[in-house]
């Protein structure tokens, strides 16, 4: 199955693209998705503990099972002022 991943803020700069389409096995989790992303952009791994993952309008954890065609957002922690 394919999922589309969008990167925001400094994470976009670290991976060098705004968006990726990634092929994963059916039933894959966010954790598996992140491993594929880190293989492509190893600099992102340093941010693993702090990044936020969005699926649709919800934040999800690393155990969230992805759906075919889903759009996933990879974001730095939200900061306010």
**Largest sheet features:** 5 strands, mixed
Read across the widest sheet, the strand sequence of neighbours is: 2-1-5-3-4
Determine the CATH topology: Ubiquitin-like (UB roll)
Global Rg:
12 Å
Going by CATH, the homologous superfamily would be: Beta-grasp domain
Instruction: Provide the CATH architecture.
Output: Roll
What amount of the residues lies in strands? 25-35%
Distance between the termini: 39 Å
The helix/strand order is EHEHEEE
Oligomer: single chain
CATH top level label = Alpha Beta
Global morphology:
globular
Helical content, roughly?
10-25%
Count of discrete domains: 1
Question: From the helix content, strand content and strand pairing, which structural class follows?
Answer: alpha+beta
Mean pLDDT: 93
Q: Tally the helices.
A: 2
Uncertain runs are none
Summarize the structure.
This protein has 81 residues and is of the alpha+beta class. 22% of the residues lie in helices and 28% in strands.
List the helices and strands and how they pair.
Layout: E1 2-7, H1 9-15, E2 19-23, H2 30-40, E3 52-55, E4 58-60, E5 71-75
Structural features, described:
It is a single chain. The protein contains 2 helices and 5 strands, in the order βαβαβββ. The chain has 81 residues and is of the alpha+beta class. The protein has one domain (2-75): Roll (Ubiquitin-like (UB roll)), CATH 3.10.20.30. A hairpin with a 2-residue loop joins β3 (52-55) and β4. The mean pLDDT is 93.
